[in-house]
Structures are given as C-alpha cells and as structure tokens.
Design brief:
By secondary structure, the chain is an all-alpha fold. 67% of the residues lie in helices and 0% in strands.
C-alpha cells in the first residue's frame, strides 16, 4: 500500500490553502453543535440512551467535549490529526443514530437524506485532515517548524 510522502519540501502552497479551507469550513459545524448542546444540555441528554438523568447525560457531556474540542483543534490547526481521527467515528455514530433516513417518517426522509450525505462529505474532509495534517497555515506549523524553518504538513 502506498504511503504519503507529503512534507514541507514536496507540498505546494495550494496544499496548505486547501487544508486551511477544509479545517475552517468544517470546524464551525462542530463548534455550533457543541455550543447548542451546552445551551440545551438536558434536552440533548434526554434524546440519548439512558435519558437526561442517566447515561444520556454522560453521552451528552462526551459529545459536547468532542465537538468543542475537536472543532477548536481543527479551527486552530493544533492537534488537528488526532482531532480529525476522533471526529471520524463520532460523526459516523451521530450519522447512524440521528440521520437514519431509511427509518425516518416520510415527511423527514429528504432532510435526513441530505444530512446523511452532508456527513459523508464531512467524513471525507476529516479523513483528508487526519491523513495530511493541518497544513502550513496552522498553529501547529507555527509552533513546530520543519527543516530550514519551513512549516511542515504534519
């Protein structure tokens, strides 16, 4: 299986701009959702297995931590690879739990299908960030320079 040979030496400026755009474009979705969970914590927990007074509260706390932490990491480009790697299974689970268009009432099928497909696109962007890192235009690159002081992709 081929491995990535991306580095600061082989990356074009376009690569870093694309990674910056991907991070900045998807981070608000996770941040907005996390803030929404904070603002309506009990309602969020009550929709989860175990309810607001049980396991649902723990799940909701975990979800908002993943969304706020992962969203911030993506936006800043700091720990973006592990954040994207954590957000991938989180997004898969959320998609299967809340956007199951195949079991939705007829009036919701179109909207749930759109949300399901949107999340597939998010998974693609997250996979790209998990593979290539945050790019040269990130807090991580500013903190860790590669050879000759040039920021790297990882």
């Amino acid at each position: 299986m081929p491995t990535s040979t991306r580095s600061a030496d082989t990356a074009s400026p376009l690569d870093s701009w694309v990674l910056l755009f991907a991070r900045v474009a998807i981070a608000p979705l996770f941040l907005y959702s996390g803030v929404g969970k904070v603002m309506a914590f009990t309602a969020t927990a009550s929709r989860l297995p175990g309810g607001a007074d049980g396991f649902g509260a723990l799940l909701a706390a975990g979800a908002l931590t993943v969304e706020l932490g992962g969203g911030a990491a993506l936006l800043l480009g700091l720990f973006a690879r592990p954040a994207a790697a954590i957000l991938i299974p989180f997004t898969i689970a959320a998609t299967l739990m809340f956007h199951n268009f195949w079991a939705a009432p007829e009036a919701q099928v179109v909207m749930q299908t759109i949300n399901f497909l949107k999340n597939l696109g998010l998974l693609g962007a997250l996979a790209m960030i998990a593979t290539y890192g945050p790019g040269a235009y990130s807090a991580q690159a500013a903190l860790k320079s590669g050879p000759n002081g040039v920021p790297g992709l990882s």
